[in-house]
Amino acid sequence: MFYYLLKYVVLGPLLRLLFRPRIEGLEHVPETGAAIVAGNHLSFSDHFLMPAVLKRRITFLAKAEYFTGPGIKGRLTAAFFRSAGQIPVDRSGKEAGRAAIREGLGVLGKGELLGIYPEGTRSHDGRLYKGKVGVAVMALRAGVPVVPCAMIGTFEAQPPGTVVPRLRPVAIRFGEPLDFSRYAGMENEKAVLRAVTDEIMYAILSLSGQEYVDRYAADAKAQAAAAEAARERRFRRLPLG
Questions:
Q1: Measured between alpha carbons, how far is 210 from 199 in angstroms, rounded to an integer?
Q2: CA atoms within 13 A on the CB side of 125
Q3: pLDDT tens per residue, range 128-162
Q4: Coil, strand or helix at 12
Q5: What b/e sequence results for 101-122 when a residue is b if at least 16 CB atoms lie within 10 Å of its CB, and e otherwise?
Q6: Is-contact 113 28, C-beta < 8 A?
Q7: Alpha-helix runs per DSSP H in the chain
Q8: Minimal CA–CA distance to 143: which of 27, 34, 32, 28?
Q9: At 115, is the secondary structure helix, strand, or coil?
């Protein structure tokens, strides 16, 4: 109930007014039945913009940190994401990955739409990074199509660290569903999972026009943070006069 209140009464109309999203390819999202919508992830706003334009309800696997924040703000954030039907996912370790897959398969098993960001985290620089194979595992095990989706302009509207989004139009593009039935029964083969994931990422890339980086986003973020910390240490050691 709260999900539809947000979508049609509270957030949906507000987001459409502020961002004026241009929607392309919405007809590619199946009207019924289970499917995965796999998109790039550029901004915190992505969590709300895509559900706002879809005709069907979609459930995202959201990072666990959204549900465990301290203080009043943390509790409000957790309550919001739970009310919106989002599922917390611990992103650390192999067991966490398996738990996320179980949760995703549960959503698909009910014939619903599952939203996932194969990069595993937001892009810190607007580029598209290498996808993790969890999306391929779920697509093959559930035997469902994958609809690629590209968010365009949301990085500029709400860059990392920005709390209040900038008012500017964005675009949301959905591509034709990808059918991986030719790989049925091969979800335990690493080469197949990599091939399926790369095909999904290429479809997203074709829609978004981003620069592609053949590295995991989390690794690139960590390297960038380490480089920034090193620069700050060098700056502090510089003589003042």
A1: 15
A2: 15
A3: 999 999 999 999 999 999 999 999 999 998 888 88
A4: helix
A5: bebbbebbeeebbbbbbbbbbb
A6: no
A7: 2-5, 11-19, 46-53, 71-83, 94-109, 134-142, 154-157, 190-208, 217-237
A8: 34
A9: strand
Are 84 and 166 a contacting pair, CB within 8 Å? no
Could you tell me if 42 and 123 are in contact, meaning their C-beta atoms sit under 8 angstroms apart? yes
CB within 8 A of 166, min separation 6: which ones?
Answer: 156, 157, 158
CA 104 to mean position of chain CA atoms: 13
Q: Within 10 Å of residue 137's Cβ, how many Cβ atoms?
A: 21
Task: Output the pLDDT for position 176.
Answer: 98
Measured CA to CA, the distance from residue 171 to residue 176 in angstroms comes to: 17
- Sequence-distant (6+) residues with CB within 8 A of 210 are 40, 126, 127, 128
Give the Cα separation of 109 and 81 in Å (integer): 21
3-class secondary structure, 140:
helix
Q: What pLDDT band is residue 29 in, cutting at 50, 70 and 90?
A: very high
> What's the rounded Cα separation, in Å, for the pair 89 and 55?
25
Residues 56-75, mean pLDDT to the nearest whole number: 76
The pTM assigned to this predicted structure is 0.87
Residue from 109, 143, 136 nearest 203 by CA: 136
Show the tokens assigned to 36: 């995965």
